[in-house]
Amino acid sequence: MPLIEAHDLTKRFRLPVKSPGLAGAVKHLLRPRHEEKLAVDGIDLTIEAGESVAYVGPNGAGKSTTVKMLTGIVVPSSGKVRVGGLVPHKRRIENARNIGVVFGQRTQLWWDLPVQESLRLLGDIYEVPEDRFGRNLREVTELLELEPLLRTPARQLSLGQRMRCDLAASLLHGPSVLYLDEPTIGLDVAVKERIRQFIKRVNAEREVTVLLTSHDLADIEGLCSRLVMIDKGRIAFDGPLQEIRERFGRERVIHLILHEAHPGGVAIATDALRDLATVAIDQPEPHRLSVQFDSAHATAGAIAGRLMGVLPVNDLRLDEPSIERIIRQLYEGELRFAEEGAAP
Ligand SMILES: Nc1ncnc2c1ncn2[C@@H]1O[C@H](COP(=O)(O)OP(=O)(O)O)[C@@H](O)[C@H]1O
Ligand SMILES: [Mg+2]
Known about the structure:
By secondary structure, this protein is of the alpha/beta class. It folds into 2 domains: about 5-245, P-loop containing nucleotide triphosphate hydrolases (Rossmann fold), CATH 3.40.50; about 250-320, 2-Layer Sandwich (Alpha-Beta Plaits), CATH 3.30.70.260. Helices cover about 35% and strands about 30% of the residues. It has 12 helices and 13 strands. The protein has helices at about 20-30, 65-70, 90-100, 115-125, 130-145, 160-170, 190-205, 215-225, 245-250, 265-275, 300-310, 325-330; strands at about 5-15, 35-45, 50-55, 80-85, 100-105, 175-180, 210-215, 225-230, 235-240, 250-260, 275-280, 290-295, 315-320. It has a 6-stranded mixed beta sheet, with helices on both faces. It has a 4-stranded antiparallel beta sheet with strand order 11-12-10-13, covered by helices on one side. Helix 7 (about 190-205) links the parallel strand 6 and strand 7 (about 210-215). Helix 10 packs across helix 11. The structure holds adenosine-5'-diphosphate and magnesium ion. Magnesium ion (MG) binds near residues 63 and 64.
């Protein structure tokens, strides 16, 4: 049985609609109006124990709402969801014992308490047996080098130190799933790398299943081989990281160098390629041109052939989009999704 299973999972939020001002407020009191916001729109998601999955998409796509339904703090409007055989919102406490959650921008530590007191309290809340608590604490303390931090109140920790302590806190009860929401946000490169190494190890050695939300491509590539993309509440892609280049990376650019600056080169190339491509001068050098095209509509060979027939081409180079660029476009909401005609 898969560890996480969601079928047609949907969340609609109901929001009050108020007109501005006092008149609007009074009107709303007399006749409240609501509109519905479809945050998660019928997703199917299956994650096996031990997997490490990146869950990415633009702001407002529905990532956090999905995670909240998996943790049980948000009740789905319809559809099915199970984590470790439990329906999370119906068995919140039992589900909580099975999961760890880390939010990059929030802490689960008590601000004024020394870290070890917070960890102790969390152990009590989760009712972790004394011997297991001791073992887990020793292990995370060693792996994350927390010893010098244990007597410090959370408010005195740097962001990176705080994140290490939060990771420790999320693992003390020995959960089988770890939800990480932007765990490296705001950290410097060295600390990020260290956090990644730790998460990787927890996934590989303890077989903790990881569901990660991150804008950081190094996090995604370093930790996950499977990528799930969500956009407007729907899953737009679910598969190996490497496959997204084939699915979404349709845009190609050919850079060409002419023997010499060619007046009207852009016009000639544009004319030769008609509707196939967009041509521009690679500033600041007038003898370099860039030709942008959609690989679903033309091949690089065909474009190059036409160009060499009309211009004195000295050299050319094809740029394929990087996964980084695709993910950046995805986050910026610029990616064209399947129903809008991505290459098959
Ligand atoms: N508690 C809520 N009440 C009303 N709308 C919400 C609530 N939580 C999230 N939303 C809306 O649902 C959509 C998805 O939000 P969220 O899951 O937080 O996206 P993400 O984490 O991908 O940025 C957004 O349009 C957001 O405004
Ligand atoms: Mg979010």
